[in-house]
Amino acid sequence: MAVLGSSSSRSVAVVGAVFVLVLVLDGADVCNGGKTSTYVRKEEKAVDMPLDSDVFRVPPGYNAPQQVHITQGDHVGKGVIVSWVTQDERGSSVVRYWSENSEHKLEAKGNVHRYRFYNYTSGYIHHCTLRNLMYNTKYYYEVGIGLTVRQFWFMTPPEVGPDVPYTFGLIGDLGQSFDSNLTLTHYENNPQKGQTVLFVGDLSYADNYPNHDNNRWDTWARFVERSLAYQPWIWTAGNHELDFAPEIGENQPFKPFTHRYHVPYRASNSTAPFWYSIKRASAYIIVLSSYSAYGKYTPQYKWLEQELPKVNRSETPWLIVMLHSPWYNSNNYHYMEGETMRVMFEPWFVEYKVDVVLSGHVHAYERSERVSNIAYNIVNGLCVPVHDLSAPVYITIGDGGNLEGLATNMTDPQPNYSAYREASFGHAIFDIKNRTHAYYSWHRNQDGYAVEADSMWFFNRVWNPVDDSTSV
Ligand SMILES: [Fe+2]
Predict the structure, then answer these.
(1) For residue 243, what pLDDT is reported?
(2) Active-site residue (options: 324, 334, 361, 443)
(3) Helices (H), 89-156
(4) Which SS3 state, helix, strand or coil, does residue 367 take?
(5) How far apart are the first and last CA of the chain?
(6) What is the 3-state secondary structure (H, E, C) of 207-232?
């Protein structure tokens, strides 16, 4: 009996082992996600820099222009919006500017306004658009009058064209903590030299302070001036730009953001500054708003429906979309918040072969495979993301380093669509080489250094649509 029993036990054990093996293999097939980085940051709380930090210093001189920042000012890159704040009095809204090889100073006159938010009154906020600039030219510009003139410079982009190399920095959810300062410093020191930042939303995090203390909008703008006065940042609205606070009588969403950060939305026939497009070098960039209506018949829906067919990939091969709340992400933090917008717009992204979608919101880094989930029609049950070479890669880069800290709690197991994920702060670079190739790299903040921890060669979806998967 003992021998028989033993033999029987062995059979059961073998069958059990095979069953377990099948389960494991099956599980591996279902959950063959990419890489969850083994790098672990030491636990530390991101803390905002105190108000007397040097990065927040007010520039010297009576009524000195402060918080200087620029962004693209037209649809094709020949315009620049210059913005700044004067605190003591209205001052002048004129920008004087001249190209590097010219002695002749030109002048453009902008406008000025203030706004109130609960018990806060802003300084005088100036916006001035410089138009008809020459491509690929260094311009100097001055703001302020009398003894308090400040001078800066910027480079205009090359003329729009299909093989124009151009390098974008990618930053999101920056805030104004010590970690934010590291991220910005690493971006500035990156030898790949980003020429323009694509910012995926959540700027100052002023709304985390009592009564949305708008002084933290001012400190943030002084902190980032060292980059923003010299190269354009392209803006996306995040949830921290809403500043919707009916409990203190503030019912107008996006009030501080829209007063402080102007974008050229009218140039792309948009009716609101939260969704718009620009061309820059060989890229066509579409900015969408996760926090504006996007259902059928809404202004944003109708605009995007008319916008996508206008993109000429023979002129701008790289189609980049920016939006704040990610569609493909596998962090438990904010999980599925982007789902309703995905349902509305994803079929178009596949139809028009968007190369890459940049998002923030989740305070970690993640890159997806090329997947889509557009077959579902309520009755067919087809609701699983599938490998799709016409689909974009989704990058979540909400890891700028704000005071809310890292989002470390990821879904387990890592889903198929996730190629690489890591809970660290950092920034990325999207380096377009020509119409077929772009080199993408993500740089984590690692104890004071920037370390390239993830990278990928992007192959353009129209000109070189081969499989560029990295984990399948
Ligand atoms: Fe956010």
Answers:
(1) 98
(2) 334
(3) none
(4) strand
(5) 51
(6) HHCHHHCCHHHHHHHHHHHHHHCCCC
β-strands 80-86, 124-130 pairing: antiparallel
> In the annotation, is 259 catalytic?
no
pLDDT tens-digit series, residues 399-447: 999 888 888 899 999 999 999 999 999 999 999 999 999 999 999 998 7
β 111-113/106-109 pair status? unpaired
What single DSSP character describes residue 100?
T
CA of 13 to the centre of ligand 1 (A): 51
Structure tokens at 470: 């990295």
What DSSP line would sit under 255-304, residue for residue? HHHHHH----GGGGT-SSTTSEEEEETTEEEEE--TTS--STTSHHHHHH
117 C-alpha to center of ligand 1: Å?
21
In angstroms, what is the span from residue 202 Cα to ligand 1's centroid? 6
Integer-rounded Cα Rg, in Å, for the chain is 24
CA of 173 to the centre of ligand 1 (A): 7
**Structure-token pair, residue 253:** 């969403």
Of 1-5, 243-247, 272-276, 301-305, give the lowest mean pLDDT range: 1-5
Evaluated on CA atoms 185, 136, 173, 253, the torsion sign reads positive
Per-position b or e across 117-139, b if 16+ CB within 10 A of its CB: bbebebbbbbbbbbeebebebeb
- In 10 A of CB 37, how many CB atoms? 16
CA distance 412 to 214: 39
Vertex 67: Cα angle to 82 and 118 (nearest 5): 110
3-state secondary structure of 467: coil
Cα(150) to centroid(ligand 1), Å: 33
pTM to 2 decimal places = 0.92
The DSSP output letter for 156 is: P
In 96-242, where does DSSP find H-type helix?
A: 178-189, 215-228
For residue 362, report the distance from its CA to the centre of ligand 1, in Å. Answer: 7
Both tokens assigned to 350: 């596949």
Structure tokens at 63: 């009524």
Structure tokens at 421: 């994920």
